[in-house]
Backbone:
């Protein structure tokens, strides 16, 4: 899979292509607030780092630090997002980062671009994620960064909820981590890392 991601990385079109695709397919948007993404192709991305994802806001908001806009198509599928990082007093403009999403059969691909001024289109691709989906559920997420750091997230389910997450990373040294996931009332998330000595460590 790493070689496939390398090929996708090399063949990735410039950001103009993704802007055009987003504008053609945009149906509605939602605002969120927080330093971590409100949506991630990797389930529990924020939680396994000991943080909480950004909260979706009930109403349309205004630009501000760590404000986010998530874009949807007419099928309520996420097709892109923008994260407001910092306001440049020198340029009198917001510095932002962007992500774009597309479907490949039933699978999902995330293209993550670096930061640039909001009005500019010169951001470069930083990473690609490929989510292997079966029966509407994400089972594996493969990720490749600009400096060729590669990772695989594998998920296990119980009663339609994710109960276990295995993370393999080549940084380039190899790291593997395992997490037990518990959800209470579909809201509270409890994450325990399973350590090599057989013990567990509460992440959140």
Residues:
């Amino acid at each position: 899979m790493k070689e496939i991601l390398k090929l996708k990385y090399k063949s990735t079109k410039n950001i103009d292509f993704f802007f055009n695709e987003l504008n053609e397919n945009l149906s509605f948007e939602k605002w969120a607030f927080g330093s971590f993404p409100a949506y991630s192709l990797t389930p529990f991305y924020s939680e396994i780092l000991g943080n909480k994802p950004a909260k979706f806001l009930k109403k349309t908001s205004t630009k501000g630090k760590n404000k986010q806009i998530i874009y949807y198509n007419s099928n309520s599928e996420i097709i892109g997002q923008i994260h407001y990082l910092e306001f440049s007093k020198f340029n009198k403009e917001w510095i932002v980062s962007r992500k774009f999403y597309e479907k490949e059969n039933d699978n999902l691909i995330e293209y993550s671009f670096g930061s640039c001024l909001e009005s500019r289109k010169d951001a470069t691709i930083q990473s690609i994620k490929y989510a292997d989906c079966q029966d509407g559920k994400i089972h594996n997420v493969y990720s490749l960064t600009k400096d060729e750091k590669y990772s695989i997230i594998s998920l296990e389910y119980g009663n339609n909820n994710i109960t276990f997450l295995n993370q393999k990373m080549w940084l380039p040294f190899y790291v593997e981590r395992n997490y037990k996931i518990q959800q209470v009332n579909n809201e509270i998330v409890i994450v325990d890392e399973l350590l090599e000595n057989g013990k567990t460590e509460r992440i959140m």
About this structure: The two ends are 31 Å apart (CA to CA). The longest strand covers residues 93-104. The chain has one domain: 2-202. The chain has a mean pLDDT of 91.
